[in-house]
């Protein structure tokens, strides 16, 4: 169980070590190619030290890695700019967003699939502006209105992953409690229910409701997010949110346990169509 930056360093180092092996190079030979000392390559590969995006690009060139998607993912893990030297959009909010949130956004931006159980609120990727504003005000009471607006903008900007090419595949299980909690008042909440039904029409979005009638289930442990990445399954992580930080579970046993839990919850939840009917019924009465 680690915090985001440590996870990123370790996973980035492990992937660079694998790519070096595929290139048939020893750590000393790799260091010689880029003009470094061998110990620097070793520290990077073991995650003991951070690495700049520019250094990642040097190593990728030395290993003759030309897959643009893989290059972009590894550069993002280093916290750097994109392949054209441009900072990612969330850098504009770096003075506002805590590091743990920036780390989550950077990983989410490169994920190919997200599976999430939500027990309290609608996930950020599906929130309307008004709903996001109400959640932000409640979670961060006393925050100046200007900062609330900025955080809502961040929440909405994150949703671009659903419109990217290829789009993020999103599977959501909503506990019924999420759909009974009228955040923002009746009008705002009715708009949020409509948004859920609209999002469910997207081919890459799957929404299921876990009704109270399902009784006890493994989801009682609380909400979680599973992030999966293209090309590199070893990068997959489980994210658990806490009040002031996020924790990342990355061991294969943890990933398997949460994957099994998500699959089990999908079996207990309503079908996609029944879930939409359930949400529509709530909307009619909102």
From TrEMBL:
Any Pfam family: HTH_31
Cited InterPro entries: Cro/C1-type_HTH, DUF5753, Lambda_DNA-bd_dom_sf
Origin: domain of life: Bacteria
Signal peptide stretch: none
SMART domains according to UniProt: HTH_XRE
Domain HTH cro/C1-type: 16-70
Entries under SUPFAM superfamilies matching the protein: lambda repressor-like DNA-binding domains
Protein name listed in UniProt: Helix-turn-helix domain-containing protein
Species name: Streptomyces flavofungini
Lineage, broadest ranks: Bacteria, Bacillati, Actinomycetota, Actinomycetes, Kitasatosporales
């Amino acid at each position: 169980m680690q915090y985001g930056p440590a996870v990123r360093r370790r996973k980035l180092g492990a992937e660079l070590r694998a790519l070096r092996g595929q290139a048939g190079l020893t750590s000393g030979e790799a260091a010689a190619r880029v003009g470094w000392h061998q110990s620097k390559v070793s520290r990077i590969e073991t995650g003991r030290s951070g690495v700049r995006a520019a250094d990642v690009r040097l190593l990728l060139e030395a290993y003759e890695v030309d897959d643009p998607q893989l290059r972009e993912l590894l550069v993002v893990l280093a916290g750097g700019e994109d392949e054209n030297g441009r900072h990612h959009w969330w850098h504009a909010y770096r003075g506002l967003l805590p590091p743990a949130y920036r780390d989550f956004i950077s990983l989410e931006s490169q994920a190919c699939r997200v599976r999430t159980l939500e027990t309290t609120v609608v996930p950020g990727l599906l929130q309307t502006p008004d709903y996001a504003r109400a959640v932000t005000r409640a979670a961060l009471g006393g925050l100046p209105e200007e900062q609330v607006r900025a955080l809502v903008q961040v929440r909405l900007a994150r949703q671009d992953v659903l419109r990217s090419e290829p789009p993020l595949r999103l599977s959501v299980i909503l506990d019924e409690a999420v759909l009974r909690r009228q955040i923002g008042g009746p009008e705002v909440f009715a708009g949020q229910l409509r948004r859920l039904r609209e999002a469910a029409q997207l081919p890459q979005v799957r929404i299921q409701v876990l009704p109270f009638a399902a009784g006890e289930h493994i989801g009682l442990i609380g909400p979680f997010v599973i992030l999966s990445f293209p090309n590199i399954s070893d990068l997959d992580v489980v994210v658990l949110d806490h009040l002031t930080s996020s924790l990342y579970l990355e061991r294969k046993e943890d990933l398997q346990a949460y994957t099994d839990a998500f699959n089990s919850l999908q079996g207990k939840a309503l079908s996609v169509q029944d879930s939409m009917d359930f949400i529509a019924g709530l909307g009619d009465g909102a």
